[in-house]
Specification:
Blueprint lengths: L18 H21 L15 H5 L1 H29 L6 H12 L12 H13 L33 H13 L4 H29 L4 H8 L3 H9 L4 H16 L3 H12 L9 H9 L5 H23 L7 H8 L10 H15 L7 H22 L6 H14 L9 H11 L5 H20 L11 H22 L1 H8 L15
Helix pairs in contact: 1-3, 1-4, 3-19, 3-20, 5-6, 5-7, 6-7, 7-8, 7-9, 7-10, 7-18, 8-18, 10-11, 10-12, 10-18, 11-12, 11-13, 12-13, 15-16, 16-17, 17-18, 19-20
Length: 507
């Protein structure tokens, strides 16, 4: 962390300078909304299933194909608009207001989409109903809720625990109360909560970037206007947005030595999802200051821990939740995704080998899960005790990254827990930026084909539908590289030795 001032960001950027990219992104978002009504996650009991114009989009194969094509193409239009906005803001002396405009214009239509990329929001609905009925979501599962399957919850969640914090359960109950128990209205409520998280990121990512001498406009463009962020947080209505927004705010205030406020914000983040508790000892070090010796550091660790423990205890008092989230967190993480998790690949491969020779393999995943957590703990402890104070936020980020990467389960949006911190501490305009662009492109394409909703009687066509989505993504990617000379120049400039085999003149 440095005290260097980031390039100033004027608040008077002309609207017309980014009008093209704003309109392009808006068009892409509207396409996503239209496509979501045919390919998004919709509860079986939703009245939207009976909308006359939407029935062919969900029930008839041609309608499903149109929905998937429009949804996938719309996502890629949003990616192209985001990259175009980045080119328009170079040399990054523009305005934060331009990024705010993009976030508002591109995310507003997504408030009305059928959930895409994930159906977690239907779990939130079920858990809110449990709390409203006087139940304890750490003791009862979604299957205890009347009519739970018709309200959209995945059958895999019927008897499973979810590691959310008590604050989020009360927020879920509040959303359900205000929505009149309507799932459709509740989804909008959860999206508004996600947008609070987006707003926190828009405020605090630039503030944290300023402390690190990083250009604030570029950091906000990467971490907030990013279509992967907007689709995963707003369109999916994920609670991760609020969790991450509060965590970034807590980090900034700790760096400014406003420790009590920082701990309060972090505990609120833990109250959404407990994973951010890993940041607590690093915030204690930030609070202690750059000149603190070990006695002072230990003292601030103790102070931070006592304050956080007291706040967590208070947070669990209503409803008698207690510290049920601790057991839920420790017991979560069953199953693995080979696509994203290094430990998932290891566990899957080793288990497959054991099964091939007729040996028991049920112990592999739990063993790998424990080994991953122990390895992450070793890395976290090392980063707590070694390194400069000026690199403390980066050390905290590496610890958080270790905890995520060394898990057998890595959902695509878990990467967005880390992105705001990476953006605020500096992503260089070289292969690092190219890696961000490639990651965004891969995961938005993956979300389109992996999370397609298909009615049961159309399930034999699901593989074909996924191939169609993959084909549309491939066509869009090739078209962008072939026909957008400015984009080719933008990508080629990131790595001097990287040169696309197409002309970039006239960019």
């Amino acid at each position: 962390m440095t005290n260097g001032a980031a390039p100033a960001a004027s608040l008077a950027a002309p609207w017309r300078a980014q009008a093209g990219s704003l309109l392009m992104g808006l068009g892409g978002a509207l396409m996503v909304v239209f496509g979501s009504y045919g390919a998004g996650w919709l509860a079986a009991g939703s009245p939207l299933n009976r909308w006359r114009w939407a029935v062919p989009l969900r029930a008839d194969i041609p309608g499903v194909v149109v929905s998937i094509v429009v949804l996938t193409a719309g996502v890629w239009v949003m990616v192209a608009a985001w990259l175009r906005l980045g080119r328009e803001l170079v040399p990054w002396k523009g305005s934060l207001l331009a990024v705010w405009r993009a976030v508002l214009v591109w995310s507003a239509p997504l408030l009305l989409a059928v959930p895409i990329f994930s159906r977690d929001v239907y779990a939130y609905i079920g858990q809110g109903r449990i709390v409203l009925s006087g139940g304890n979501p750490y003791e009862e599962t979604i299957s205890s809720v009347p009519n739970w399957l018709q309200l959209g919850a995945d059958v895999n969640w019927a008897e499973s625990q979810t590691a959310y914090g008590p604050l989020f359960y009360w927020l879920s109950a509040g959303v359900m109360k205000l929505s009149g128990m309507s799932p459709e209205v509740a989804i909008l409520g959860f999206r508004l909560l996600a947008w609070v998280g987006i707003a926190l990121l828009m405020v605090y990512v630039p503030k944290l970037a300023t402390l690190h001498g990083v250009n604030v406009t570029r950091a906000a463009w990467i971490a907030v206007a990013n279509p992967f962020v907007l689709l995963s947080f707003v369109a999916s209505a994920h609670n991760d947005a609020l969790m991450v927004g509060l965590a970034v705010a807590a980090t900034y205030h700790a760096a400014k030595r406003q420790g009590v406020l920082a701990i309060v914000l972090l505990v609120a983040s833990v109250g959404i999802k407990p994973i951010t508790l890993v940041l607590l000892p690093f915030l204690g070090l930030l609070w202690a200051g750059s000149r603190a010796g070990w006695p002072r550091r230990v003292g601030f660790w103790a102070l931070s821990a006592v304050l956080a423990l007291a706040l967590c205890a208070l947070m669990g008092v209503p409803g008698g939740f207690g510290f049920g989230w601790v057991a839920a967190t420790l017991s979560s993480g069953g199953g693995y995704l080979v696509w994203f998790a290094p430990l998932g690949i290891l566990a899957g491969g080793f288990a497959g080998m054991l099964q091939a020779i007729g040996l028991q393999a049920g112990w592999v995943l739990p063993a790998v899960q424990v080994a991953g957590r122990l390895a992450a703990l070793v890395i976290i402890i090392f980063l707590l005790f070694r390194g400069k104070y000026s690199h403390l936020v980066q050390r905290m980020l590496l610890a958080f990254t270790a905890l995520v990467v060394l898990s057998p389960v890595i959902q695509p949006w878990y990467l967005l827990w880390l992105l705001p911190f990476f953006a605020a501490t500096g992503i260089r305009e070289d292969w690092q930026s190219l890696w961000v662009y490639a990651t965004v492109a891969f995961f938005v394409a993956f979300g389109c084909f992996d999370q397609i909703f298909i009615l049961e009687f159309n399930m034999p066509w699901k593989g074909t539908m996924q191939l169609i989505s993959i084909g549309v993504s491939a066509v869009c990617l090739v078209a962008l590289l072939l026909f957008s000379r400015p984009l080719r120049a933008q990508l080629s400039a990131l790595v001097p030795r990287l040169r696309f085999p197409f002309r970039t003149a006239g960019a």
